[in-house]
Amino acid sequence: MIGISLIPDLYNIIFLSSMWDPYGQLSDLPVAVVNNDKEASYNGNTMAIGKDMVSNLKENKTLDFHFVDEEEGKKGLEDGDYYMVVTLPSDLSEKTTTLSNIQSTAAYQSLTSEQQTEISDSVSQNSTDSIQSAQSIVALVQDLQGSLENLQNQSSNLSTLKNQSNQVSPITSTSLIGLSSGLTEIQGDVTSKLVPASQSIASGVNAYTTGVDKVSQGASQLSEKNATLTGSLDKLVSDSNTLTQKSSRLTAGVG
């Protein structure tokens, strides 16, 4: 009876010992990594995110990583050789070039036995942290590479700009000389045409002034003639009245 009651305890001791005490020694916990990623092109460069992640995980001692192919990983998972299989999909690099979320592309597979369920949360978290750390390193390297390429392009642009400025300098000098010559020619042409035109305008103004004076004199003479005519008409009316009076008297005398 005592022996039967000890069987579960002995089983747990044997099982946990076979799993390398995952509570205290996660660095000894075997995790298989399958890299199915294929290279992808980005801005003329070749990217291999899966390969870079594997290189970084080899330096990571958080877990006992084993780098195997898909068939070996599946068999080891079924046989209990690996606690978990992390599969990097074939389109990991391609999705990275299209700014897809890297963290969502890795496929995780793990055993589901009741004994391993107790430690699955702790192991999954540490495995995820390790993968994300590797991804952060890869992203940092890519940013550095992009910065270096950008710096190289800027240096090339500065060199090109310097050469263009050297070419522009004599062109600008020649253009300024031509512009000055053209302005001098235009100024001479304008002056030669403007002087006679101004003289013609002055002559026209003088003629107009003379004409206005003549009109003014004519108006004065007309006014004087009009006054004389008015005086003559007044005299004519007065004479006509006198004649009428004398005619009336003559008629009365005859009668």
Automatic annotation (TrEMBL):
As one GO molecular function, the record gives: ABC-type transporter activity
Q: Which InterPro entries match?
A: ABC2_TM, Phage_infect_YhgE_N, T7SS_ABC-Transporter
Coiled-coil region: 134-164
**Which compartments is it annotated to reside in?**
Membrane
Segments forming domain ABC-2 type transporter transmembrane: 13-174
According to Swiss-Prot or TrEMBL, what is its membrane topology?
Multi-pass membrane protein
Per UniProt, which keywords does this protein have? Coiled coil, Membrane, Transmembrane, Transmembrane helix
Q: Which residues form the signal peptide?
A: none
GO (cellular component) term, any one = membrane
Question: Do you know which PANTHER family this protein is assigned to?
Answer: PHAGE INFECTION PROTEIN, TRANSPORT PERMEASE YVFS-RELATED
Protein name as catalogued: ABC-2 type transporter transmembrane domain-containing protein
